[in-house]
Amino acid sequence: MDKSRPRHQAERLPLIIERPDLTHPARRVLAVVFTTAAWILWIVLWIPFFFAIGRYFGYALPNFTFASHLTLNSLFSLFEVMPYLIGTLVLIFILGFIREKYRTHIGYDSERWRPVGMARLATGNALDPKLLAEWQLARVLYVEHGPRGRVTNATATYPSRPD
Known about the structure:
By secondary structure, this protein is mainly α. Helix content is 48%, strand content 6%.
């Protein structure tokens, strides 16, 4: 009586990514058409850039006008700034790594994910490790939270409220 009743296990079809032959033929054709159109558009959008590069290196190619204010010279000026940007991002990454590595020494508790043992599970949930077996067997667990939202107490029996 204390066990749940068996549930109806409906037979599930495999995911479409595993069995693409299960999709509707019209969807498969549309997927190929849209993918091909996207690739063609992507290549067409690069044509003005390649023509501008060719003209920059001295080839007699037609001059494409760009729709925006960006020109080839402004693109090259962005390339000049790129090493400083990459260097700054690498420095921020290194400082973040050092901060995370020495976080416990700075005065913060380490909140990293790591394997949880039974003793840590019990102390992390404000339980005596000896009561952990009772907690795991309980169908209902009554939990008390502290002011910061952390678990301060947990018990399998209904706690009596102070009046």
